[in-house]
Amino acid sequence: MATLEIGGIDCQRLAEISGTPLLVYDEAKIEQQFTAATENFQSDQFETEVVYAAKAFSCKAIFEKVRQAGAGLDVVSGGELYCAHQAGVPMEKVYFHGNNKSEEELKMALELGCGTIVLDNKMECQRLTELAAQLKKPIQVLLRVNPGIEAHTHEYIRTSGSDSKFGISIAKKNEIKSLVSQAMLSDYVQFKGFHSHIGSQITETTAFEEALAIMLGFIREMRDDYNIQTRSLSIGGGFGIRYTADDKPIPLGEMADILARTCEKLSAEKGVRLEKLLIEPGRSIVGEAGYSLYTVGYSKDTDTKHFLFVDGGMSDNIRPALYQAEYSCDIANRLGEPKNKTYCVAGKNCESGDILVKEAELPDTAREGDLLVMYATGAYGYSMASNYNRAGRPEVVFVKDGKARRVLRRETYEDQLRLDTDEQLTI
Ligand SMILES: Cc1ncc(COP(=O)(O)O)c(C=O)c1O
Ligand SMILES: N[C@@H](CCCC[NH3+])C(=O)O
Predict the structure, then answer these.
(1) Both 342 and 265 in a single domain?
(2) Which residue is closest in CA terms to ligand 2's atom 7?
(3) Which of this chain's residues are annotated to bind pyridoxal 5'-phosphate (predicted)?
(4) Pairing of strands 5-6, 9-10
(5) Are 311 and 279 contained in the same domain?
(6) 116 part of a folded domain
(7) Among 32-41, 146-155, 196-205, 278-287, which stretch is predicted with the lowest mean pLDDT?
(8) Is there a single domain that holds both residue 362 and residue 237?
(9) What separation in angstroms does the CA of 192 have from each of 114, 116, 187, 275?
(10) Confidence band for 406, pLDDT divided at 50, 70 and 90
(11) Rounded distance, CA 8 to CA 398, Å?
(12) Which residues contact 251 (CB under 8 A, 6 or more apart)?
């Protein structure tokens, strides 16, 4: 019986040392994805920048890899910004996103020297210009606009329909003009350009090409009709990965190259000159590098299902419950055995929807104590994990060349109690 190896290490050994549930990252795969993106996203007509979207997976260790790759970092909260700062990410390479950044978060960004704020709306622009003047801190801004593209992905991860909560619709040109003019009046705020992001887990190029065409047309109109000069354009992230054999994503390097070439071609056609083009991959950098290891516990047959229970669940990976996301899995210590039985792999959270893989083909020899591996769990698993049922967040290890290092320790019962208190409030 063969056992799965990750980064040159037998995963049963990893489970013995670290326990389960365990999230293992193959560090070399993360590095390959950064290299594929940065080396292929190049142009001799404009500068390019790959900006890693922290929301896919954030911790000091991954931010360290962002720094090593020379990439930028997209953060969406004070918490992600704080972690980036603590990890030594150069603050000028940080892009701060979000539709409702608080005054405290904006001040924090200004004080830490965050490079760019991606503005979402008019009220935020007003608040930022006031704060930048008060604190006398310079800041660059991009404005997030919404090109109104319906990407073929789950509705919860589609971000660019005409009534999306993110950004301003590009149809609202007067509103955009007034926001940009307000930013340009400020001595501290420097308007750089626009940002758009159309959704996530998009596996084909058409939607991105369409977004680029719409954005470049919009940039020309803003120049010709309103005298607004755009230097930078970010077309966001959203590049899909392979979760199951049905997913056929375009490799990240190819996608990056296609986007740079498409932008060159369309810029020439539309008579637009950009100084810089940015992409913001999250999932495609870390997703396929992640493996979730669970120990199989009890099993149970109902009239229609063979349940196989594991020692994690929706508290460490909410994606199947939230988006009906599909994953593939194996019994990691029975790799060569025929997969001759259909199981429903369920977690241990107190929720009927706590199903990790609805229909998994696995050997009928699967039994208590086996190790189940779920593939491609590196994005939006840990970062969306919760303490539901006071489940502790799993340990995370990075493996490479036969060596393993713990980068996030397992959350203990004591860790969870650290917020419990009993303090009288002064009313
Ligand atoms: C603004 C923005 N940029 C980048 C991303 C990263 O997306 P993905 O992880 O799908 O590449 C997201 C998430 O969808 C986003 O909202
Ligand atoms: N969290 C989502 C993607 C949303 C990305 C943020 N705009 C997922 O797990 O697929």
Answers:
(1) no
(2) 157
(3) 238, 280-283, 380
(4) antiparallel
(5) no
(6) yes
(7) 146-155
(8) no
(9) 15, 9, 14, 10
(10) very high
(11) 12
(12) 36
**Does the beta carbon of 197 sit less than 6 angstroms from any atom of ligand 1?**
yes
Q: Ligand 2 mean position to 368 CA, how many Å?
A: 33
Tokens of 214: 């719409």
Tell me, what's the pLDDT at 163? 78
Determine the average pLDDT of the residues in 298-327: 98
Same domain, 278 and 335: no
255 shares a domain with 364: no
Q: Could you tell me the residue range of the domain that residue 174 belongs to?
A: 27-286
ipTM: 0.98
What token pair was written down for 352?
């009927």
Identify the residue whose C-alpha is closest to ligand 1 atom 16.
197
- Tell me if 98 CB under 6 Å of ligand 1: no
pLDDT at 155: 53
Atom number in ligand 1 closest to CA 195: 1
pLDDT grade, residue 164 (50/70/90)? confident
- Asked about 11 being catalytic, the answer comes back as no
b/e per residue 335-364 (b: at least 16 CB within 10 A): eebeeeeebbbbbbbeeeebbbbeebebbe
Is 246 inside any structural domain? yes
Does some domain include residue 427?
no
Does residue 384 form part of some domain? no
Catalytic residue among 59, 83, 329, 350: 350
183 and 227: one domain?
Answer: yes
Summarize pLDDT for 343-393 with one digit per residue, the tens: 999 999 999 999 999 999 999 999 999 999 999 999 999 999 999 999 999
CATH number of the domain bearing residue 192: 3.20.20.10
Write phi, then psi, for 263 (nearest 5 degrees): -65, -40
**Any idea which ligand is nearest the CA of 282?**
1
Give the chain's mean pLDDT: 96
Give the end of a domain, one of 286, 313, 337: 286
Residues within 6 Å of ligand 2 by CB: 55, 157, 159, 200-201, 319, 323, 380, 384
